[in-house]
Amino acid sequence: MHSSDPLPSASLLSRPSGGRRVVLGSTSVYRRELMQRLRLPFEVAAPDVDETPHPGEAPEALARRLGLAKARAVARMHPEALVIGSDQVADLDGEALGKPGDHARAVTQLRRMRGRTVVFQTAVSVVCAASAFEASELAAVRVRFRDLSDSEIEHYLRTEQPYDCAGSAKSEGLGISLLESIENDDPTALIGLPLIRTCRLLRAGGLVF
């Protein structure tokens, strides 16, 4: 869940050793807030990436491809930096469910997911063009939804309006009330950025913190 305590600005934090800037290749508010938990200075840049799935592309493959593509796109603009790219795809029996974008699509998604298990495939990549470093990892989070009534779905969506979230639910907010269980090994993966894996990749890229 998001903390209510203000987090320090990245510009006010001391730079870790390792000599390279860190750039988050995402404009997601959720990923930016997660990165701030690491108390590392970082910049934010928007990746210019076409997120259209390839024909027949599995959700896991889509998440991996887009996470790496976003990191590579930003690394071309910041070749000396360690660039983080990430993507999340909701996987319902092998079908990719994207961000709903509006209320009607969110209702359809949640109706399909009620009483079922959805795997949220969250990929993270770290790329440094100058050192030719590239590495990626995937965190798969198994989420079991309750057998939600239409009125519960409507109340949730009107209250939280999670239309920019894959799978139409924010587990760090009221969306937790929709769930029966969460199975994962990287607690922040479901919010959009698996921090355990992100730290591991940054260290592999040469950052010491």
Which CATH architecture would you pick? Alpha-Beta Complex
**Overall radius of gyration:** 17 Å
SSE arrangement, N to C: EHEHEEHEEHEH
Sheet of most strands: 7 strands, mixed
CATH class: Alpha Beta
How many individual β-strands? 7
Question: What percentage of amino acids are in beta strands?
Answer: 15-25%
Textual characterization of the structure:
There is one protein chain. The protein has one domain: Maf protein, CATH 3.90.950.10. The chain has five helices and seven strands, in the order E-H-E-H-E-E-H-E-E-H-E-H. The chain has helices at residues 29-36, 59-77, 103-113, 150-160, 195-204, and strands at residues 22-24, 43-44, 82-92, 95-97, 117-128, 133-145, 179-183. Helix 3 (103-113) crosses helix 4 (150-160). Residues 1-17 have low confidence and may be disordered.
Task: Label this structure with key terms.
single chain, 209 residues, Maf protein
Record the SSE blueprint:
Elements: E1 22-24, H1 29-36, E2 43-44, H2 59-77, E3 82-92, E4 95-97, H3 103-113, E5 117-128, E6 133-145, H4 150-160, E7 179-183, H5 195-204
Parallel strand pairs: 1-2, 1-3
Antiparallel strand pairs: 3-4, 3-5, 5-6, 6-7
Helix pairs in contact: 3-4
Briefly say what this structure is.
28% of the residues lie in helices and 23% in strands.
